[in-house]
């Protein structure tokens, strides 16, 4: 852990990896746009030589992220998908990956349509069932990919138990912590090897930056990740790093409101006469509620639900909202709504989606920080309009 970890999370979100600029006293991390750096002699530099390899603004962000995840090393990337791609670069032809059958559609697409051509194989299973996970492992399995809460069905996976299964089989356990953020959940503390983030979401928090990150406690893994980060070059620019650092400063405040609004909205939807099912780990009838209580500090700002009406009505409802914006992505201060089967998970074959429980009419909501009464009223008028049309 870094020395910063003696402070509380809220303090580290603002200060970890950052100090006032030694030359000017600037409180905020400067945006270093230089691509190259003067060397004292050939091959001897002052910590930076070329901005694809390392950049002062990016370094501050990486130190901050490592501290928040209780890690020792962090690497940042141009997108969340670039970070996931880098994890897969650790594997070799013939290796096998076990992954959840309820993961982000972009991750599923990367696995099945990009890396299968390099002779990697994948098994997609219900990772909430530890027996199924154990049975899915083969002698050539080298990676267990976990989301928790999952996207979009909000299933909760037992990180510690899954990490144990992976390690007993000489495999890595990687946890995508995007939905929870380090404010609510820290997988490295539960023996995960690598934590993955889409910085685009809650960590950036304002829908104005694309980025990804990988955090670990292993120096050996970090060196490998750093090699691919530099060699492939899918690194974020200094402006993007600055924006994420700015967003992280308010992460604790935003997450408290995201969680509060999602909790209230899920309870309201659960009692709604037109809603057949609500997926939110904060609800006591959620199958992963007890586990979420154990490994999370709160239940997050994401929820999904299904209407009793046909999927066509669901689409009408999603286009009738006035505050909720019909859009992909999540984790910003504004509330978003989408239909995963037609949007974020459209690349997943329909038969596989349905087998995993992802129905055509499922609605996913990223609950923003607006007033809860306005959010309820907006969904109500949208449901009413969709049903009467």
Reconstruct the topology from this structure.
Blueprint: H1 9-15, H2 56-68, E1 73-77, H3 80-88, E2 96-100, H4 105-114, E3 121-125, H5 130-136, E4 141-147, H6 159-168, E5 172-176, H7 181-184, E6 194-198, E7 212-216, H8 219-232, H9 238-248, H10 251-270, E8 275-279, H11 289-295, E9 302-307, H12 311-320, E10 325-326, E11 336-338, H13 350-356, E12 363-366, H14 372-388
Parallel strand pairs: 2-3, 2-4, 4-5, 5-6, 10-11
Antiparallel strand pairs: 1-7, 6-7, 8-9, 9-12, 11-12
Give an overview of the whole structure.
With 389 residues, the chain is α/β, with parallel strands linked by helices. It folds into two domains: 10-248, Type I PLP-dependent aspartate aminotransferase-like (Major domain) (Aspartate Aminotransferase, domain 2, 3-Layer(aba) Sandwich); 251-388, Alpha-Beta Complex (Aspartate Aminotransferase, domain 1), CATH 3.90.1150. The protein is 38% helix and 15% strand. The protein is built from 14 helices and twelve strands. The chain has helices at residues 9-15, 56-68, 80-88, 105-114, 130-136, 159-168, 181-184, 219-232, 238-248, 251-270, 289-295, 311-320, 350-356, 372-388; strands at residues 73-77, 96-100, 121-125, 141-147, 172-176, 194-198, 212-216, 275-279, 302-307, 325-326, 336-338, 363-366. Strand 4, helix 6 and strand 5 form a beta-alpha-beta unit. Helix 2 runs parallel beside helix 9 and helix 12 (311-320) crosses helix 14. The longest helix is centred in the last third of the chain and has 20 residues, at 251-270. It starts with 8 loop residues before the first helix and ends with a helix.
